[in-house]
Predict the structure.
Amino acid sequence: MSNARPTKHSPAATPAVFFDRDGTLIEDRGHLRSPDEVVFYPATVAALRRLQPHFRLFIVTNQPGVSIGEVTMADVQRVNDHVVARLREAGIEIAAVYCCPHQRSEDCACIKPKPFFMEQAAHEHGVDLARSFTVGDHPHDVHLARNAGATGIFVLTGHGNKHLDELTADDIVAEDILEAADIIISRSTTPDHATTT
Ligand SMILES: [Mg+2]
Ligand SMILES: [Zn+2]
C-alpha cells in the first residue's frame, strides 16, 4: 500500500486535483446514508487513472445533511470510506477525503468555497496549490479553486447544468469528469525541469 508521506528526499510540492464527491465522482442522490446508495459515474475510474501519474488526488465535500440531522457523520464516513475503497480496488489512491458537515448559515471555516481544506492539504501533503485544480458540479467548486489560487473545472454532471448560468465567461466547463481530466492534462504540460523555483 502507498502510505505516501512527504520525506526530506521527496521533490518539491506536487500538484493535486480536488474533486467534489456528489455529482462529480458519483451520482448526486441527495444525502447518502449508506454505501448501497453510491453509484459511480462510468467515466470516473478512467478519469482518475489518467490524472494519477501527475497529481495527488483528494475529495472535498460539503455534507450539510449532517448539521440538519438528515444523516450522521458516521453515515458520511461510511460512504466516503466506500468510495475510497472502491477506487483503491481500481488502483486509484485518494490521499485524503475532507468533509465539511456544516450548513452555510453556521459560517464555519471549512465550507466550500472557503479554501480551508485545500490549505490543509498544502500543509499536510505538500501540495502546490498554484499548480492544482478543482473539479465539481457547483459554482462553489470553481470559486474554491479561485480562493485557493488554483484552477477550477466545472462539470455538467450532477447539478452542473442547473447552475451553468451562474458561471462567468472565463470559467472552464467540461461535459464530465473525463473531459475535465483531459483539460487538466492539457493545461499542465509544463516539463518538470521548468518548474523548479
Ligand atoms: Mg456536487
Ligand atoms: Zn464546515
About this structure: The first strand starts at residue 16 and ends at 19. Residues 16-188 form a domain with the Rossmann fold fold (CATH 3.40.50.1000).
